[in-house]
Amino acid sequence: MSSESVFRYSSSASDEDSSLTVEDMLEEQRHRVALHEEYKRKAREARKPVAQLPTKYNPRLTAGPPQVHFGLVLTQQHLLDYANAHALAHTSGKPLTTISCRLPVTLHLRSLTNDDNLYTATPYVQDGPGFIMVALYSNYSMHRHKLVEEDENEVLDILRRALKLESQPALWHWDAGNTW
Out of the domains of life, which is the source (predicted)? Predict the structure, then answer.
């Protein structure tokens, strides 16, 4: 095969592009930005925390809904401060991180509440990253792990006092790992 190109290129695409003016391209870009902003607004609205689980997120009623968690949200710094205040930091000499303290904090909170199903999750929070959630259950585990209302309220009260989140309501939060 020779070193000459064997590919042929259509000139129709470049002819079409050349008919666009700079103003047309700017208008198209503005339109795309507006569509993206509208998508983000709708996504934020759909991902707001809610007190009651919407039917569309119940996996027994809807096929394959996104994962949502029920519980309390705190900042990563709050989690680190809690771990340090209760000497839950590991003794390896390495700095404490939110990853290294999640399990010790979870185990500590489980012992306080006698609820072995507590876990930490990463919620979608509109204020941005940097938040952790202490969850009682998800929409996928609620049918196995949901407590009776009185016990659930007691666990939430213990968590609020322990984490100093007295005024925070327990809500359903969208999992940050959801892709849609």
Answer: Eukaryota
Helices (H), 20-136: 22-46, 76-85, 98-113
Closest CA to 77 of 117, 129, 123: 129
Q: Say which residues have a Cβ less than 8 Å from residue 94's Cβ, sequence separation at least 6.
A: 100
The verdict on pTM exceeding 0.90 is no
Q: Are residues 29 and 73 in the same domain?
A: no
- Give me the mean pLDDT over the 93-116 stretch: 90
Task: Please tell me whether residues 28 and 78 are part of one structural domain.
Answer: no
CA dihedral of residues 170, 69, 137, 116 (deg, nearest 10): -80
Is 2 domain-assigned?
no
Tokens of 171: 């809500």
CB-based contacts of 82, cutoff 8 Å, min separation 6: 74, 88, 105, 162, 163
Q: What percent of the chain has pLDDT over 90?
A: 58
3-class SS of residue 135: strand
> How far is CA 99 from each of CA 96, 106, 135, rounded to the nearest angstrom?
8, 11, 16
